[in-house]
Amino acid sequence: MPSMGFSFPKENPSSLLAWPLMEILAVHHPLVAHKLTALRDVNTDSPTFRRLADELVTLLAYEATRDVRVSPVTVDTPLQPAQGVRLSRPAPLVVPILRAGLGMLDGMTRLIPTAEVGFLGMVRDEDSLKAQTYATRLPDDLAGRQCYVLDPMLATGGTLVAAIQLLFDRGARDVTAITLLAAPEGLATVESAFPAETPIRIVTAAVDERLNENGYIIPGLGDAGDRLYGVV
Ligand SMILES: O=P(O)(O)OC[C@H]1O[C@H](OP(=O)(O)OP(=O)(O)O)[C@H](O)[C@@H]1O
Ligand SMILES: O=c1cc[nH]c(=O)[nH]1
Ligand SMILES: [Mg+2]
């Protein structure tokens, strides 16, 4: 029977987009696209939305952690010693941005169980579109630390810029953000906010078309926090 419908061409690898000063990886994979499509669907209920966000972040984290630092180690197999690696210390720091980023935490720590977790509470004022920080719980010293920021939505970029600045203020210079959706406008804002010598990496399931007049990603998925946890 002939296969029907859309299929991913084999030569369609994840794209490292040509953003001059920032590394942006849009992960092209049929499972990512399938789960993201269901996540966008307005008929997807909250329990399903949570499960899909959890599954998606694990797939994205696989790509986002390609440069995670490891150290050589030797273990004894039942037959003989074998060379391998283990995650270097200090352990990576994972930082979900509350609320919506919390929906990505379990999926990330499932992949890196030894990661430490810091928390940032941030909310965007829906009139000014400016991000406000209402909670900060981070190690004081992040020098030399690999940091992974989790937030499903990169819209204007104000929230992510504020979050990365808080990490930089504590000495972090190696920051990767994992998002489910990013808007071109937000990517440009993040890129221009930090010096070229400390590039930010962004790994996302998709880069959408644009922002609408209310700062929402189009076509997007709506308000990620509300869809995960309810309207506040
Ligand atoms: O790129 P920006 O324009 O700054 O917008 C993106 C931010 O908006 C959403 O959070 P929201 O403020 O809705 O808070 P919530 O997670 O508590 O719902 C989202 O999770 C990001 O944190
Ligand atoms: O599209 C958007 C923009 C900001 N925050 C969201 O949750 N969704
Ligand atoms: Mg919200």
Which terms summarize this structure?
single chain; binds uracil; Rossmann fold; 14 strands; 10-stranded mixed β-sheet; binds magnesium ion; globular; 232 residues; 30% strand; binds 1-O-pyrophosphono-5-O-phosphono-alpha-D-ribofuranose; alpha/beta
Q: Roughly what fraction of the amino acids lie in strands?
A: 25-35%
Number of domains: 1
Percentage of residues in helical conformation: 25-40%
The SSE string, one letter per element, is EEHHEEEHEEEEEHEHEEEH
Q: List the bound ligands.
A: 1-O-pyrophosphono-5-O-phosphono-alpha-D-ribofuranose, uracil, magnesium ion
Which outline best applies? globular
Largest sheet: 10 strands, mixed
- Secondary-structure arrangement, i.e. CATH architecture: 3-Layer(aba) Sandwich
Structure commentary:
The chain is of the alpha/beta class. The protein has one domain: Rossmann fold (3-Layer(aba) Sandwich), CATH 3.40.50. Helix content is 28%, strand content 30%. The strands form 3 sheets. Strands 1, 2, 5, 6, 7, 8, 9, 10, 11 and 12 form a 10-stranded mixed beta sheet that branches. Helix 1 runs antiparallel to helix 2 (46-64). The longest helix has 19 residues, at 46-64. The chain is globular, with a radius of gyration of 18 Å. It starts with 14 loop residues before the first strand and ends with a helix. Residues 1-12 have low confidence and may be disordered. Bound molecules: 1-O-pyrophosphono-5-O-phosphono-alpha-D-ribofuranose (PRP), uracil and magnesium ion. Magnesium ion (MG) is lined by residues 100, 223, 225-226.
